[in-house]
TrEMBL record:
Residues 1-21 form the signal peptide. Keywords: Signal. It comes from the Bacteria. It comes from Psychroflexus planctonicus. This is DUF4382 domain-containing protein.
């Protein structure tokens, strides 16, 4: 099972460029910003180099340098970098520039709002895209699936993923991408008799993406937990 999360690109305002070449008309609009057709893969480590594409509503007759700055962001300055000026090539309304991300945590929906020529702002929310999960939860339920729940917690106590189930569920397989770090997995049974073996042969298995087993079982009381590390 694959979990895909997309980088969301939100246009918050129209952007105005007020510094152009002598051959250009003042006050042109930067109409949109896209990330490779609205999706981009960001490495699960949170460190990557991404290509940003922007479009304008005009086409310059010569190369145009556009200042770009950060209006607001949830990231530390050490976690991102991009050029102070980006270039819109002559004869096209499409430009590109690179942003370097370093050790970005995807908990809490990190974002950055960039302004072109200090007018307005394009807000971009970075969300981890996971094409190949590096942690997989498999559960075969007993007769009382509604009693089962679980959660994955990071080393600062934040619940990153969790789930509970309706009555009548038989099994589940759920995959996730986690950045490098230390984590705890907890599985719970509300009645306190685990998921095996009085009311069915239930079991759970937590594995890395390559199939290596982190933990497995089914016979516990109200909960069972394991610590693991993503390198």
């Amino acid at each position: 099972m694959k979990t895909i999360r997309k980088v969301l690109v939100l246009l918050s305002t129209a952007l105005v460029i007020s510094s152009c070449t002598q051959d250009e008309i003042i006050d042109k609009n930067v109409a949109s910003l896209e990330f490779n057709n609205q999706t981009i893969e960001v490495d699960p480590t949170g460190s990557d180099v991404v290509n940003l594409v922007f479009y304008t509503t005009f086409t310059p007759s010569s190369d145009l340098n556009i200042p770009i700055s950060v209006v607001e962001t949830s990231l530390d300055e050490s976690q991102y970098s991009f050029p102070e000026n980006i270039t819109l090539p002559a004869g096209t309304n499409k430009g590109e520039f690179e942003m370097t991300l370093t050790d970005v945590s995807f908990f809490g929906e990190p974002f950055i709002t960039m302004a072109f020529d200090d007018n307005g702002g394009l807000r971009t929310e970075f969300v981890l895209e996971c094409s190949e999960p590096n942690v997989i939860v498999n559960i075969v339920f007993d007769q009382y699936s509604e009693e089962t729940s679980w959660e994955i917690i990071n080393d600062t106590g934040d619940v990153l993923f969790n789930n509970s189930y309706d009555a009548g569920s038989t099994s589940t397989e759920e995959g996730f991408c986690l950045p490098s770090g230390d984590y705890d997995f907890f599985i719970y049974d509300a009645y306190g008799d685990g998921i095996c073996c009085d009311f069915g042969e239930g079991s759970y298995q937590l594995t890395f993406g390559d199939g290596t087993v982190i933990a497995e079982g089914g016979q516990f009381t109200d909960s069972e937990s394991v610590s693991f590390t993503i390198e």
